[in-house]
Amino acid sequence: xxxxxxxxxxxxxxxxxxxxxxxxxxxxxxxxxxxxxxxxxxxxxxxxxxxxxxxxxxxxxxxxxxxxxxxxxxxxxxxxxxxxxxxxxxxxxxxxxxxxxxxxxxxxxxxxxxxxxxxxxxxxxxxxxxxxxxxxxxxxxxxxxxxxxxxxxxxxxxxxxxxxxxxxxxxxxxxxxxxxxxxxxxxxxxxxxxxxxxxxxxxxxxxxxxxxxxxxxxxxxxxxxxxxxxxxxxxxxxxxxxxxxxxxxxxxxxxxxxxxxxxxxxxxxxxxxxxxxxx
Length: 279
Known about the structure:
Shape: elongated
Mean pLDDT: 85
Structural class: alpha+beta
Largest sheet: 5 strands, antiparallel
Strand order of the largest sheet: 4-3-7-6-5
Radius of gyration: 25 Å
């Protein structure tokens, strides 16, 4: 074995092992981020499960790098300007749709129904990704379908978190065009009257209270759907995770298996992108 091979093997082992001192110091950064406010040395070191004497040299180095900052008035330690900058850059690099797409196939397998990602477009909630149910009999959704603002699962869900003026205008346009204003999903469509603003606003209040919405036979008889929101770090709704299936086999309960599966996936995705619910 050559000297070069030996060095490469040693580098590989070091890569796998990592640098323990960085991992130890990283506990302080995690603790500071988790608390979200400047902390005294004793409290911060306890949160990182180390002694103040051990934590202090790490904090001195982190402050020099800008990862941490010590308040000159209180002596408390908080995240520094470099940590803030890294966080903002990380947020800018996040693509929620790409991250949600990676979860879609597994989610369809887990809940046993077709699932889709919808985003808000110029015409309303639009299906951009789908994963088919593993069941032999299932409902499909087409990419690019713009769903009804008022009588689907994801339409009112988005509307509940959009500016009121925008939603009012879209609802008025839908009422002008009639119940077949947007893309339909099949030959068994069931046109319904577009609601008044007074009625629709009550629906939106209920949606915000539950942070989810459902449609049971809303457009197609015998087909149900349920959708949950995903919010970004600015508490803006960036996408909806929607499940759809035959009503006879679809658990549309607010606390049922479908709702729990979608909610768990949305929660994990929001944790990944640093999302938060509106205040």
